[in-house]
Amino acid sequence: MPAPRVLIFGVIFAGIVAFGFWLGETADDQVGGDRIVIEYWEKWSGPERQAMADLVDEFNASQDRIYVKFLSVSNITRKLMLATAGGNPPDVAGVWAADLPVFSTNGALTPLNPYAERAGIEPGDYLPSVWGQLVVYDRLWGLPTTPSANALHWNKRLFREAGLDPDKPPRTIAELEAYNDRLTRINDEGDILVLGHLPTEPGWWNANWSFWFGGDVWNGEDAVTATGEANMAALKWIASYPERYGVGPLLGFRQLSGVFASPENPFFRGRVAMALQGPWMYNFIQNFAPDDFEWGVAPFPSLKAENYGTSLVECDCLVIPRGARHPEEAFAFIAWLQEPAQMERLCLAQLKFSPLAQVSEDFYVRHPNPHIRVYRHLAESPLARWRPQMLTFNEFSADMGSAIDDIMRGAESPEQAAGELQERQQGLFKRKYDNWQKVRDERMKEWDQQ
């Protein structure tokens, strides 16, 4: 991160601590004397939670003006919306950047533009694929913690056994399916023993397959495009699996697939040779895969060679809910976490890559994941994508998952499934979009006055 931003923030943070220009301070806000207590809700649990807890402890020990009370909260999206509507939100919350369109449209967040400007935080401090997720309606709603990028993961042993070069993954969808044919093994009874690839394994990004086919699922403004060329190409590709391998054998194969976070995971067991996954796989492989498991990471194949390198980048972020009692202090904590030293420690502890534009070489030297640079390069690429900032994307995603299940079961053709999906989701989207247009100008004025 550029040095001037660090210097500016340091002056601002020192001013906050030294002069204590706090708003709404009460006796209940004090801990250990004159410290202001800010409440921070975070969705993480386990090691991810502990990584942030350690940094919170460090922040609390680094100065004597602000005390962060750190709480791990389940179902944070729903609870944060309810707490904000009830007028009793936390000061800081850790959410998924993909939910910022819904939070902001519903007036649940505080715009961070003026805080960021005072701290010298700029778009160029971050990867464009990360910053782009944080800006909705031309306002900045959060600052990042840990990002991820999806990539092709493959089993090198299975490649070698199939006569494929274990260090040469497929680059196009056509190559992926050629590899698939060589990797797939079926016994005399017609049961599938090994599949080269299965689009529904794990099936977490069913609504985003159109990215690798050169398109999207909406037009970026006012219409869903489930029947568009890219999404139709993706659905027809998915439909080719039950056509080639049979509905029954595929259902049987999927029923025998084990729990993801276990040694029964089909990728770890060698039952699926290639899968779309992210940087967290290193930790699961260390914990659940055989000791001699050989794996590689590369961009997921795309329909056209010129789009090779496309990836879905996702990010966790910190926000200040609307109505937070201590927004200045909350932002001081958030900004402290954006400093390179803190950010790299957090991302290293969570086995992710840094969202900052500048990263130290020591970060990569210390990182245990041998493929971490691959994910980072994908996030740096101009082909990097993020989830559509459409108001109904969560509903669209669930509906797309159901449509793909129908296609995989042979219950509907891609054309039928997409047509019905388009009708349902465009109707839902239009209602929410029209409602937003009615309050947009007023909401924008409110944001500008905050």
How would you describe what is shown here?
The protein has 450 residues and is of the alpha/beta class. It has two domains: 3-141 and 314-380, Periplasmic binding protein-like II (D-Maltodextrin-Binding Protein, domain 2, 3-Layer(aba) Sandwich), CATH 3.40.190.10; 151-310 and 389-432, Periplasmic binding protein-like II (D-Maltodextrin-Binding Protein, domain 2). It is 46% helix and 15% strand. It is built from 18 helices and 14 strands. Strands 1, 2, 3, 4, 7, 13 and 14 form a seven-stranded mixed beta sheet that branches. A hairpin with a 5-residue loop joins β9 and β10. The longest helix has 36 residues, at 414-449. The chain crosses the membrane at residues 7-24.
The secondary-structure class comes to alpha/beta
Helical proportion, percent range: 40-55%
Shape: globular
Beta-strand content estimate:
5-15%
| CATH fold topology of the largest domain | D-Maltodextrin-Binding Protein, domain 2
The number of domains is 2
Characterize the biggest β-sheet. Answer: 7 strands, mixed
CATH class of the largest domain: Alpha Beta
CATH architecture annotation of the largest domain: 3-Layer(aba) Sandwich
| Oligomer designation | single chain
Q: Mind telling me the C-alpha Rg? A: 23 Å
The helix tally amounts to 18
Query: How many E-type strands?
Result: 14
Mean pLDDT: 92
Q: Low-confidence runs (pLDDT<50, min 5 residues)?
A: 1-30
CATH superfamily of the largest domain: Periplasmic binding protein-like II
Distance between the ends: 28 Å
Transmembrane segments: 7-24
InterPro entries: Bact_solute-bd_prot1, SBP
Organism: Ruficoccus amylovorans
Protein name: ABC transporter substrate-binding protein
